[in-house]
Design goal:
The chain is of the alpha/beta class and about 375 residues long. The protein binds NADPH dihydro-nicotinamide-adenine-dinucleotide phosphate, 1-deoxy-D-xylulose-5-phosphate (DXP) and manganese (II) ion (MN).
Length: about 375
């Protein structure tokens, strides 16, 4: 059997490194065609020496010479900068592109990959949040499948296998509730980044970990689900499930619910997306019911964790509003991580941006670029006013 050659965008991150574990465990099935990083040149070099891709891209151009000096003698093509990241996915020697970049940076490479006809394994949810309508239309036009990697969306995707002719009544996305589940606004006003970075169940990159703490991660996932599964907003529910064992559920028109369960381990959804439609053998730790005597559920507190409400509102308004809240959130989270913004101010900043940045009902790619730029400018101004 031919090996599937994977372009792994964001190989030095949480998803990227776990994807390499999956690939390494199945050398007969997968090979690495491309690796990319933004700043972590040392790890990129180490990965490239081990996995021998055809090409690597280092986003930060200042690090080009370091990476070139290490990898060019091995016959590996070395490129730098965002334009190279966007075009490297077009190469003939690529069978699938795994987008594990963080934030808006995932959008352009994904567009190039789809236009080049490459199947997408999508971890970078922000791509669908920013431009879900455009990306899904492009994927349909080029007949390119998008396989979800995000654990909730992988769960739903797995529940839908064999149900192609059965309409979905609704989906239920599970949320851990994050480290501040049950806390009041008074408490949240004083929390630190160290507290917010302690996710109860998952070890992930800093940006998504803060998003989980504010519930923006669930808001982004609501929008991601809308585009992946072609749903109306009223077909998407969120339930807090603090144990993160049920990864999400689908309810069909007969009332039956299907769920996918397992220990919180991203290697499973990554492997499922890379290997679809096969379930490849894996030695990931198995779930033991005896160790989880109670799986519990509660309503999300959308007033205290306002970001979830803002994401539903963005989905209802449509157009460029999800792009606005994404850009504002990226700026706000980065400022929170620099101790320049309080936890509750993240949602305040997003709400202000959503009210002030001009609305575009049917955005083109150019409109998304302008919206992202304009929102970042306004959001940075708002951060400066706070400091
Ligand atoms: N981690 C998880 O368990 C999950 C993550 N996701 C989603 O997957 C995506 C990746 O998350 P995660 O792995 O946690 O993130 P990380 O921060 O751990 O990794 C991000 C990766 O992208 C690279 N990168 C960062 N900024 C840029 C940029 N501007 N341009 C190009 N590359 C960049 C980083 O390079 P460098 O290391 O050099 O900085 C790194 O390789 C996110 O969209 C997240 O929401 C979804 C579900 C679960
Ligand atoms: C692993 C994964 O998919 C994350 O998106 C995770 O779901 C975050 O947990 P929260 O439910 O706390 O947002
Ligand atoms: Mn998720």
């Amino acid at each position: 059997m031919n090996k599937k050659r994977i372009a792994l965008l964001g190989s030095t991150g949480s998803i990227g490194t776990q994807a390499l574990e999956v690939i390494e465990a199945h050398p007969e099935r997968f090979a690495v065609a491309v690796l990319t990083a933004e700043n972590n040149a040392d790890l990129l070099i180490e990965q490239a020496v081990r996995f021998r891709p055809q090409e690597v891209v280092i986003g930060n151009e200042k690090l080009y010479h370091q990476v070139y000096a290490a990898l060019q003698p091995l016959g590996i093509g070395v490129y730098a900068g965002a334009p190279a990241l966007a075009t490297v996915v077009e190469s003939e020697g690529i069978d699938m592109v795994l987008t594990a970049l963080v934030g808006y940076s995932g959008l352009l490479p994904t567009m190039h990959a789809i236009r080049a006809g490459k199947p997408i394994a999508l971890a970078n949810k922000e791509t669908l949040v920013v431009a879900g309508e455009m990306i899904t239309a492009l994927a349909r036009e080029h007949q390119v499948p998008i396989y979800p990697v995000d654990s909730e969306h992988s769960a739903i995707f797995q529940c839908l296998v064999g149900e192609e002719h059965n309409p979905i009544e609704k989906i239920i996305l599970t949320a851990s509730g994050g480290p501040f589940r049950g806390k009041t606004r008074e408490y949240l006003a004083t929390v630190t980044k160290a507290q917010a970075l302690k996710h109860p169940n998952w070890s992930m990159g800093a940006k998504i970990t803060i998003d989980s703490a504010t519930l923006m991660n669930k808001g982004l996932e609501v929008i991601e689900a809308k585009w992946l599964f072609d749903l109306r907003p009223d077909q998407i529910d969120v339930v807090v499930h603090p144990q993160s064992i049920i990864h999400s559920l689908v309810q069909f028109e007969d009332g039956s619910l299907k769920a996918q369960l397992g220990l919180p381990d991203m290697r499973l959804p990554i492997q499922y997306a890379l290997g679809y439609p096969e379930r490849l053998p894996a030695r990931f730790p198995r779930f033991d019911f005896a160790k989880y005597p109670s799986l519990t559920f509660e309503e999300p507190d959308r007033q205290t964790f306002r970001n979830l409400e803002l994401a539903f509102e963005a989905l209802d308004r449509g157009g460029n509003v999800p792009c606005i809240i994404n850009a504002a959130n990226e700026v706000a989270v980065a400022a929170f991580l620099r101790d320049e913004l309080g936890f509750l101010e993240i949602a305040e900043l997003i709400e202000t941006c959503a009210a002030k940045v001009p609305y575009v009902p049917s955005p083109s790619y150019h409109d998304y670029v302008l919206t992202d730029q304009e929102t970042r400018r306004l959001a940075q101004e708002l951060v400066r006013e706070k400091v």
